[in-house]
Amino acid sequence: MKERKIALIGNPNSGKSSLFNALTGLNQKIGNFPGVTVDRKSGPLTISKGETATLIDLPGTYSLYPSSEDERIACEILRNPHHPDHPNLVVVVADGTQLKRSLLLCTQVIDLGLPLVLAVNMLDLIKKQKVKLDLDKLSAQLGIPVVAISARNSSGLKDLMATIQRTKERSSLSILSIPDQFQPQIDEIKKRLYIESDYLAYQALLRPNEFDLNGAKPEVPIQSSEQLISNELLVRYDRIDDILSSVILQKATGVAGFTQQLDKILIHKVFGYVIFFLLLMLIFQALFTWASVPMGWIDLAFLKSGAWMEGVLPKHFLTDLWVNGIWAGLGGIIIFIPQIAFLFFFIAVLEESGYMSRVVFLMDRIMRPFGFSGKSVIPLIGGFACAIPSIMMTRNISHKKERLITMMVTPLMSCSARIPVYVLLIAMFVPDTPVLRIFNLQGIAMMGFYLLGFILALMAAFVFKLILQYKAEGIFITEMPIYRMPRWKNVWIIMYQKSRAFVVEAGKVIIVIAVILWLMASFAPSGKFNAIDAALDLKLATQNLDEAQVAAIEKSRASEKLRTSYAGIAGQFIEPAIRPLGFDWKIGISLITSFAAREVFVGTMATIYSLGEDDVDADNPTTLRQKMLAETDPETGEPVYSAAVAFSLLMFYAIAMQCMSTLAVTKKETRSWKWPIIMLVYLTVLAYLASFVTYQLMS
Amino acid sequence: MNIQLSQMRQGESGKIVKIGSSGMEVALLNFGIAIGDTCTLSDIAPLGDPIAIAINGTKISMRKKDAANVWVE
Fold it and tell me: Using an 8 Å Cβ cutoff, are B49 and B63 in contact?
């Protein structure tokens, strides 16, 4: 017999994900449902000794009439018996404090004719609110097994497993009686779709677009189908009220007082924003100060291990490819893990505690004029760390236009890969003068570029809002759940999963780009490298040099080779295009290599100026800075790096789309080439114009 | 007297008597809210929009534009 498939379904905030985490732990697999960007979470479930099943966590939904893509997937899986994830058993997770609403979904699943178990969650809260429920009566009235659980404390899970094990049958009852006048159409649809459930056929009648009816459109009912749906829901609620009158022995009173009190402060006109602002400061502190410690370790570990491997492995181009191509590329991704983990730690805590919906509440009206939603705030802030997870995060923005706008402008937020570039270039021309005792001019310049990115993001969003044509906005209704202590297990699981997704998604791209760039930098048209080697070897052999001079020659060997390599040729090729920005071909090479990741700029410049690894420290690149400042134009004798060039370059790095991984993720999330291409084009044009104006005005 | 949900002041309660669009009606029903239910306007965002209502022991926030479709007495 094939392994049983069990699906978890429930309202958002019903504790469904907690239950899934409690049942599967870290054994879960995350992927996408085919053809859509909706997370598909599944994991092995041990029902009893010797009996396992596959547990699938379906996206949260309030009813089987979907209003978003996530909900559509959940419905599709339950409706279509041929869907690969169609379950043998459904576990409906109900919020015990919101039984009425939860039972709506439950009665719909009963009418679909699927075997199901109802898990009434939040036992702990029910007790706290002094609510008394008669679940045996509920079970009898609905004709299905009912189990009380608390996913939070993992209680009642044994009972749930035992019930799952013995439940094979569907309920003998049906809750909704479908109006007689539709019977002919229902019979027709049942025949056409080879299905048994009247209710399923009725859904196909009301929402034909969500079913594959082989092109046939059922006759449109006299009343509009939305009206029929609301009639159905009303009938269900009547029945549910009826049932609950004998099930709920003691009711809860109003919204929990604690939540009401806390909301008085947290969404207060003044304090609400003050607290949110302080929280943002804390997140920034974590992303840039706390995360920098482990990032330093990772950086060092990759440098040292790379150097070590270069020492022990045979001198061969494959060694070079491994160490300087793949290993270095890998290091370039891993280094961001501390930031990503911190970012998702905060996001998970905000979500879990219930505060996130208040952020949306506070920010929605402020964000809307720019074409954002209240839910855009967090992806935009995440953009200061890295655009890749931020673009993935936009999934929970239900309105399509608002989501697209958020994705398109997130790369304008100055991500942390730009920091090394900012540090190097700002220090070249901005003096380290203190301002008002606590600030200094360099810090203010740096802040200026962050602000620039943010303001440009707002402006770009506004333009997209005007250009993009989408039909009327969706209805924006969200629950503001009661405040609860975050469940730490869920927080860890989210951190782990998101960091992993980041490494996989960004990694795929960066490794490929890193290898391509390595190839471009390591090979030259035939004979060129040999000529350099021959000339330098001759120098080494004929002159009597001390150690320092030998080292200098070895470094200039690398520099010479880069100049003649394919990367160097490409840099020279684009020089005419970037000349008006004040860039020479050396900067051109660095612009090209930056496509793997922006921070590569510093390393490339170091190689061009014949510096060893030990001369470059991203936090204090003094040597490289001096070398660059000393560089003069061979024809005019003027210094290459003027303030105009540096600021033009800074502008370029602040704006330009130089991150392949971001483009790849955008392609994946929008499922089209159109949006990443638009992103690349508009950001490149904008960067070019900004640099051009800066250079022309300053020189 | 019937007024729109969007016109209610903070702390006021009312019974839902009419929902202007069937889309909004289904959306509210999904949260277990129907005509005849009593709700309290519990919070207004600092810029006057969105608003949140307390109903059936939970809080639901919505944009003012959508709330204008709901009539209460």
Answer: yes
Chain B residues close to A101, C-beta within 8 Å: 30-32, 56
Length of chain A: 699
| Alpha carbon distance A431, A446 (integer Å) | 12
How far apart are the C-alpha atoms of B1 and B62, rounded to whole Å? 23
Helix (H) or strand (E) run with residue A679 in it: helix A674-698
The sign of the torsion formed by the CA atoms of A480, A484, A490, A496 equals positive
What is the distance between the alpha carbons of residues A591 and A568, in angstroms, rounded to a whole number? 11
Q: Which residue has the higher pLDDT, A324 or A81?
A: A81
Angle at A69 between CA A65 and CA A73, to 5 degrees: 70
Q: Rounded to an integer, what distance in angstroms lies between the CA atom of residue A325 and that of residue A344?
A: 29
CATH of range B3-72; options 1.20.1250.20, 2.30.30.90, 3.40.50.880, 2.10.109.10 = 2.30.30.90
- Which residue of A226, A267, A477 is in closest CB contact with B31? A477
**pLDDT > 60? residue A271:** yes
CB A601 within 8 A of CB A593: yes
Look at residue A613 in the predicted model and tell me its pLDDT. 47
The β-bridge partners of A52 are A46
* In chain B, where the domains are located: 3-72
Task: Inspect the interface and report whether the beta carbons of B58 and A362 lie closer than 8 Å.
Answer: no
Q: Do B46 and A478 touch (CB under 8 A)?
A: no
d(CA B24, CA B20): 7
Condensed to tens digits (0 to 9), the pLDDT of residues A176-234 reads 888 888 888 888 888 888 888 889 989 988 888 888 776 666 666 656 788 888 889 99
Residue of chain B whose Cα is closest to the Cα of A12: B31
What value does the mean pLDDT of chain A take? 85
Beta-carbon contacts of A208 under 8 Å, excluding residues fewer than 6 positions away, are A217, A218
Distance CA A461, CA A397 (A): 15
Interface check A67 vs B, CB under 8 A:
yes
Residue count of chain B, please give it. Answer: 73
Residue B14: both structure tokens together = 């009312």
Q: Which CATH superfamily is domain A4-166 in?
A: P-loop containing nucleotide triphosphate hydrolases (3.40.50.300)
DSSP A346-413: HHHHHHHHT-HHHHHHHHHHHHGGGT--GGGHHHHHHTTT-HHHHHHHGGG--SHHHHHHHHHHGGGS
State yes or no: pLDDT of A3 exceeds 50. yes
Distance from B1 to chain A by nearest Cα, in Å? 25
Domain definitions of chain A by residue range: 4-166, 500-698
Report the C-alpha gap between A27 and A488 in whole angstroms: 17
The ipTM (two decimal places) reads 0.93
Q: What is the pTM of this model?
A: 0.83
Q: Which residues of A309-332 are buried (b: 16+ CB within 10 A; e: fewer)?
A: eeeeeeeeeeeebbbbbbbbbbbb
- Residue-wise pLDDT tens digits, A634-684: 667 677 788 899 999 999 999 999 888 899 899 988 889 999 999 999 999
Measure CB to CB from residue A475 to each of B27, B32, B58 and give the nearest one. B27
For residues A205, A207, A212 and A216, what is the CA-based torsion angle, rounded to 10 degrees?
A: 50
Contacts of A504 (CB under 8 A, 6+ apart): none
